[in-house]
Design brief:
Layout (H helix, E strand, L loop, with lengths): L17 H17 L8 E3 L4 E6 L2 E6 L6 H9 L9 E7 L2 E7 L4 E2 H4 L5 H20 L1 H4 L14 H15 L3 H17 L6 E3 L8 E3 L3 E4 L6 E3 L2 H12 L10 H13 L5 H23 L10 H9 L8 H4 L1
Length: 325
């Protein structure tokens, strides 16, 4: 049984084993000290799969699980400068847990800044976020050796995706027609994906993975970079701009900008199937994470990924509706 978190547990660790969270913090303190930092003077930054602290001129990321970061570090060092990723000062492992230290750069996490931005600033931020990450798409010929064709929310094979769909259908009690539609959309993605150009996607294109300083100054955390259709990044961009933190659709200038970008960059034939399938796969991955937390305080159907998944299965296609008609 996982121990109950204490009152001083950081919100990002509330669903983690407190002893494991403390262990990762100890690793981060050790790494920070190597680069002249003191974790006690650094602040915890957003992020789920890695624990991140920023301050003392550096940013330290440590994987929560025993996975390496050498591949991500190699990719980051090869990225076009225009993406703005902070300079990597070092990377390595402690007891199998990968870590990366980058130079601290000026800026606020875009997700944290978002509620304070004007409508025009939000629209500009979405456009600039896409412009920066699109540099990676364009540089795919030189970057593709650093990434795999699966990872993040993109499973290795249709069978893995179908199994995730079955888990979601069971957890949410989906009706027969909705279960069939779920499998049809997933299968449609896997049919279409090999037929289009494969590019290097960020794979987790979220507001929290960008910095804002009156401008989008950097795109961060390429740990889920994946080779595949550009619709992988497009579906996340549209979701970030058109869906609130609690999973409700938002009509805004930023959302309109994201839809315009998606319509321009989607494949003219296979784009709807790919962006719809990628969005479904995204929510299936998130739903698996939520199911593993096994929170008794909410019904599964009320979770954010559940709301988004069921809306994507509606006849209009949820937040992707303007792109699927």
């Amino acid at each position: 049984m996982t121990p109950e978190p204490s009152a001083d547990t950081h919100p990002l660790d509330q669903h983690r084993d407190p002893s494991e969270a403390a262990r990762v913090r100890g690793m981060a303190a050790e790494v920070a000290a190597r680069f002249g930092g003191d974790l006690a003077r650094m602040r915890r930054a957003n992020g789920y799969s890695n624990a991140t602290w920023v301050g003392d001129g550096i940013a330290v990321r440590v994987a929560h699980t025993p996975v390496g970061m050498a591949r991500e570090a190699a990719l980051v060092r090869a990225l076009p400068r225009g993406i703005g990723h902070p300079e990597i000062l070092g990377e390595g492992t402690i007891e199998g847990h990968g870590w990366i230290v980058t130079r601290e750069v000026r800026g606020q996490n875009l997700h944290e800044a978002w509620p304070t931005l004007t409508a025009a600033e939000q629209r500009h931020a979405i456009r600039r976020l896409w412009a920066r990450v699109h540099l990676a798409h364009d540089a795919s010929p030189s970057l593709r050796t650093y990434v795999a064709a699966h990872g993040g929310f993109i499973p290795a094979a249709l069978g893995d995706a179908a199994a995730a769909a079955d888990r979601a259908a069971a957890a949410l009690g989906l009706s027969g027609p909705r279960r069939s539609r779920l499998h049809a959309v997933v299968e449609g993605y896997f049919r279409a994906a090999p037929l289009v150009e494969q590019c290097v996607n960020h794979g987790d294109l979220a507001l929290m993975n960008a910095l804002w300083d009156g401008e989008v100054t950097a795109v961060l955390d390429f740990e889920f970079a994946v080779l595949g259709p550009v619709e992988i990044d497009l579906c996340r961009l549209v979701c970030e701009a058109r869906v609130s933190d609690d999973g409700r659709r938002v009509d805004s200038e930023a959302g309109a900008a994201a839809l315009e970008i998606a319509a321009r960059h989607m494949h003219p034939v296979h784009g709807p199937a790919l962006i719809h399938g990628a969005a479904i796969l995204d929510q299936l991955r998130d739903l698996d994470i939520w199911l593993a937390q096994d929170s008794p305080d909410e019904r599964a159907e009320d979770w954010r990924p559940s709301r988004l998944l069921t809306a994507l299965l509606d006849a209009d296609g949820g937040y992707l509706a303007p792109l699927l008609g």
